[in-house]
Amino acid sequence: MASLFGLFKKQNSIIGLDIGSSSVKVIQLRKEKGRVILETYGELSTGPYASKAVGQAVTLAPDQLALLIKDLFKEANITTKVGAMAIPLRSSLLVTIDVPDLPEAKLAQMVPLEARKYIPVPISEVILDWSVIPDMREELIGAEEPNAPTVTDKAESEKMPKMKEVEVLIVAIHKDTIKQYEEIARLTNLEAKFLEIETFSAMRASLYGSRGAMVIVDLGAATTKVVIIDQGTVRLSHTINKGAQDVTLAIARSLNVSFAKAEEIKRKVGLVEKVGDKDLGETLSPIVEYIFNEVSQVMVEYQKKHNRSVEKVFLIGGGALLPGLFDLAKSNVYAPVVFATPFDRVDAPAFLENILQAVGPEFAVSIGLALRALEEL
Ligand SMILES: Nc1ncnc2c1ncn2[C@@H]1O[C@H](COP(=O)(O)OP(=O)(O)OP(=O)(O)O)[C@@H](O)[C@H]1O
Ligand SMILES: [Mg+2]
């Protein structure tokens, strides 16, 4: 828990609030003469608010969350109630579909009908948004045509000429989810300027470099979220049902200790050392490898479909901090892997540089939210 610069006044300050399943993160930023200044940041685990251990993923009711958020704001010396909140990807739908290249008005009729196939509840219960993904062929000079037909495809298409297709990104959030977040805001007196699906916040805070294909891997407690972004647009999102909590559970089983003790050992030892005569690496590596093999598969599928190779993989989420994970990620994924460094986007005192570098991946979502909130102030 960091608690800094409590002396700052609230003028022009905003917060980004990321309510994760195992921990809630907040960051407070201020804009001054065009610079973005870090005022304070902090994090609190959700587990203890549901009589569970630190690091465990739990579902808290809005009133329990409100209690936690009030505690967090106090501990982190938050001095403003204006900001933005992230909506978890698991409460949203983010999908790209291929549709015929029709005029906008026709698409407006067709896309909601198509979206129904992916949305397990009546369409009236969700807020739906969509946009046509810009045709990358127009932007890429000298690149091969994506979706170039293979020999067998060609035979098919000669029989039945195919209409040109475009890709559409569909975004849906259940109205109940929005109500829940509004309720949390009400209970904490938070003036939420907007709610944003965490994926978009993470992109804003993490990505740098060219507009080539990038992957963000968010290692949360219960799940790992993989998103492919190309030319600045989300092209694919995929959730792996394994997360950093599974590593803790494996330690608890292997060493016959409680979850809380295992969590402690995980953060300190990770995959790299022995505990007594037990080599934790042997037990834990398969879990991490499982996750990154699936990341790799998603990348390969994307590459096959679009003929675009991934330039860089950014790791975010608390799970990315597991000692030893980085090397395993590097050896299991074909593209260069880096930790996201979202604090690079803010001005902070030099003495914090190392700690901010180390905890950066955990705060990617909250920082991304706060950066947008500052723009909209
Ligand atoms: N220093 C650390 N070393 C190893 N693991 C860590 C460290 N800090 C946090 N973790 C692990 O990170 C996980 C939590 O990550 P994070 O806070 O990103 O998840 P979350 O946002 O709560 O989850 P989600 O986004 O899936 O809702 C926990 O399993 C925790 O044990
Ligand atoms: Mg998270």
TrEMBL record:
<dbReference type="InterPro" id="IPR050696">
    <property type="entry name" value="FtsA/MreB"/>
</dbReference>
<dbReference type="Pfam" id="PF11104">
    <property type="entry name" value="PilM_2"/>
</dbReference>
<dbReference type="InterPro" id="IPR005883">
    <property type="entry name" value="PilM"/>
</dbReference>
<protein>
    <recommendedName>
        <fullName>SHS2 domain-containing protein</fullName>
    </recommendedName>
</protein>
<dbReference type="InterPro" id="IPR043129">
    <property type="entry name" value="ATPase_NBD"/>
</dbReference>
